[in-house]
Amino acid sequence: MKDKVLLSKLKFVEEIIKRKQPSPPTILNKAKRIFSYGPLYWKHLLVRAKFLPNKDFKARLFWGEDIHLPLFDSEAFYLAYFGTLWRNQELRLTKFLIKNLQPNDIFYDVGASYGFYTRLAYQIVASEGEVHAFEPHPKVFPYFQKFGEKKVNVFLNNIALSDKNGESLFIDSLTSGGNSGGSRLLNDLKKARSGVLVTSSTLDSYINKHKAPTFIKIDVEGAESLVIEGGKEFFKNNSPVIVMEVWGKEQKIIHSHTVNRLCNMNYKIYRLDENGNISYESEINFDKLKGYENFIFKK
After folding, report:
1. In the structure, what pLDDT confidence band is assigned to residue 217 with cuts at 50, 70 and 90?
2. More confident residue, 178 or 43
3. Which domains does the chain show, CATH number per domain?
4. Considering only CA atoms, which of 246, 242, 243, 224 is closest in space to residue 293?
5. pLDDT for position 176
């Protein structure tokens, strides 16, 4: 019953997104979008341009939960404005999770950002399951840290899941004027010009002290292979459903390597449609990917 309520509320928000995000992305449509957002969007642009100091603001997610987010980060602004992650790929994934997560699932959100999927999963598994979130970004994590307070089945970790325990170098895209969504771990320290050291753990080490995932979402901007490597012992004998962001073009080599590794562990590839349903794909054509897509991997 709860899945029908959530899907109904999401459908209402989708109609708003279509009006606020007209296609195609022509100059005229972009101008319409800017004016349709109203004063809050102008404040966001002024903060981004450093004409105004950053401030936090309260918004409401599509199921009714309040959330506080920073005005300077575009990723946070759109999440707050729509109450959901608005891109088509994320709407598909949101529907899939609503339809497929079960109350007793153990959900791992790897690369949780501001915790949208963490909070969504909690709506479904709160009574019987658990939610474990991993977000190393020092500026992003505090915004959903309080969410885990007084919840015995929510574990929020200000760490990166990687291929090693200790410390890893983290590139903060916000520092260079980007969005938090582009922040990432760096595989090769020799190529690093800037960054901060963050605590890292392997999945294998983490599950020695916690319940293992039955459902795991991985969105770590090209470091997905590090997450898989750090959980190789777990994946040998277990079959969690994996949701993973896959990019083509400039990240084709990195992501094709990770996909091939999952396939070698007997995972099969499934593509999401507009309704959040899945269909089997024998392989991913990376050259035809427009940006990124979220794929489902199941044994």
Report:
1. very high
2. 43
3. 85-298 (3.40.50.150)
4. 246
5. 47
229, amino acid identity: E
Closest by CA to 95, choosing from 218, 220, 11, 214, is 11
Give every CB contact of residue 180 below 8 A, 6+ residues apart in sequence. 73, 75, 76, 113, 114, 137, 139, 140, 173, 174
Residue type (1 letter), 191: K
**pLDDT confidence band for 190 (50 / 70 / 90):** very low
- For CA atoms 176, 182, 185, 188, the dihedral sign is negative
Measured torsion, CA atoms of residues 77, 80, 86, 90, in degrees rounded to the nearest 10: 110
Do residues 99 and 3 lie in contact, with contact meaning Cβ atoms separated by under 8 Å? Answer: yes
> Which regions of 23-149 does DSSP assign to beta strands (E)?
56-60, 66-70, 106-110, 130-134
Is a pLDDT exceeding 90 seen at residue 275? yes
Query: Which DSSP letter does residue 231 get?
Result: T
> What is the per-residue pLDDT for 192?
46
The candidate with the shortest Cα–Cα distance to 108, out of 168, 159, 169, is 159
Q: What is the mean pLDDT of residues 250-275?
A: 91
List C-alpha distances in Å: 146 to 141, 156, 198, 210, 248: 10, 9, 20, 20, 36
95 close to 294: Cβ distance less than 8 angstroms: no
Confidence of residue 144 (pLDDT cuts 50, 70, 90): confident
* Residue type, position 58, single letter: K
Q: How far apart are CA 36 and CA 16, in angstroms?
A: 11
Residue 138 pLDDT:
85
* 159 phi, psi to nearest 5 deg: -140, 165
70: number of Cβ within 10 Å: 22
Residues 292/246, Cβ–Cβ less than 8 Å: yes
